[in-house]
Design goal:
heterodimer, A: 361 residues, alpha/beta, Arc Repressor Mutant, subunit A, Nucleotidyltransferase, domain 5, 3 domains, 5-stranded mixed beta sheet, B: 254 residues, Rossmann fold, 4-stranded antiparallel beta sheet, 8 helices, ABC_transporter-like_ATP-bd (chain B), P-loop_NTPase (chain B)
Chain lengths: 361, 254
Amino acid sequence: MARTGTEELRRRNRAALVEQLHRHGPQTRAELTEALGLNRSTIGALAADLAEAGYVQETTGRSTGSAGRPSTLAECVPKAATVTAVEIRVDRVRFALVGLGGEVLERAETALDGADPVDAIEVVTGGTARDALEAVAAVPGLVDAGEVAHSTELGWAGRDLAGDLASATGREWQVVDTATAAAVGEWSRGDAHEATKLLYLHGGRGLTAGLVVDGLAPRGGSIQLGHIVVQPGGRECACGLRGCLEAEMEVFGYAEDIEYATLAAGMGDAAARDGLRRSGEDLGRALGAVVTATGPDEILFGGWLRELYLSAAAPVRSALAETTLPHLRSRLRLRTPVLGDEGALIGAAETGFATVVDRMR
Amino acid sequence: MLLELTGISKRFGPVEVLSDVDLAIDAGEVCALVGDNGAGKSTLVKCVAGIHGVDGGEVLVDGEPRHIASPRDAANLGIEVVYQDLALCDNLDVVENLFLGREKRRGIFLDDDAMEQLAAETLQSLAVRTIRNLRQPVASLSGGQRQTVAIAKAVLWNSRLVILDEPTAALGVAQTRQVLELIRRLADQGLAVLYISHNLNDVFAVADRIAALYLGRMAAVLDAADTTQSQVVELITSGRSGQLGLTDQNGVRP
């Protein structure tokens, strides 16, 4: 009995060490001892163990500038564990093969020209999906357990994407929504790791949002921001409801041309200025509902919502101030993502690595 | 509080430009200073920067009363001002501008490698991707890039309070967005930022608190999260908004 106990403990510690190196980059044994709260000799044994398994390599590291032998650095071997990450958009598919430690080993992008993205997967990934430990696809829409329940951007409803991808490539796939993936990416590789509840808003050909709690995506964290009704009985939306945020904001025009709209507003075009103001107010009001329901401590405006927020922050925040409780808004940080367009792809890969590390435990 | 101003007054001859102004700024926050032309924004900034002396009131840095008599005093206290007309040297490159007056030396020579590396690290920490070549003369940079260099200078010199006077006034749409993100990142890295602007969208995009000056007096200092655009406009134009703001008008108490 005691043996299985120590064996399990050892496995957990190994996983913790790999995770630490993967997330925070090359570190000395002293730094690892500090970060993991393990004994120095335990770290040594674990590192040697992982080096033998091929996950970790030890190098004579950076000099600290002071006298003495430079301490050895432990770092991940990128090729030891790879994740295939794919981001599907209406007009293109982007791919990255990411190695342990977060290094991007390969990258590709292909335009779809109306083809089904699943058909393009084999080509764009170049067959790497088979050898990768995990394969993750990010899709703009409402995703639940491998199924895309609704996607304005792709025009899908109830599509079993995980199944389709599996039959196209012959391996298992995880499916996440773009906004949630980007939230995971910003939390793990961006600037938002201090946020306990991070809400990422994604502006594409529709508006979606994703919530991560302590860097993890809870089931049901995928939010259909664009289909929150802000004007009951308002304009008809493609989803069948009336007065959805997407329809009221005329999202599709902005997705194409937010740059033009803000430039025109800046030059004094009254219609453009009025349009931006109303869009900002509608977005703020819809956000008010989301904030009240989920209580995030940071909101990131991604996709073209970055441009909209920076051009129309006054109406967004005014509407938010009028529709949320003081307690919820006082600690709320509104930011733009640092990873920019890369967030979803990086986050999809990180979602895969979370599974890889979980399996090592 | 990093910087605390209490009861600041300033006269130019018979004109009282600032009267009994209170303002406090803490590390890690962006405080926006708004007001109409002639409300006293620039004068207040110049008092903090050591260009004007104050006629009354106290300036406290880290809770201690300080006398800021010259821009050098301000710099020694970690206060850095980035002006509208960016004080950069056109004929020098980005690195030379960043280190102007505080060059790193190795012996009697300039340590160019160390300066270039430090400059690159600073820009990286601010997620600046718009400046590719650090050895290009500043004259060849766009307005937004010049503004970025001017702001990065403040970070490089370990300033604690950065004062930005209308940093986006002369910039295009895309450049304005980048500078706004940069301002926010400065504060998130733990600096205090005093940000002066006429554009309320820009103010709401980055500010944690909004201070409105009206005819030389502080009408109100509000949490940006609790404020609406129309309240700020009212404070700027009339000094009051509902229960907020100045309680008397032009010296006449109701």
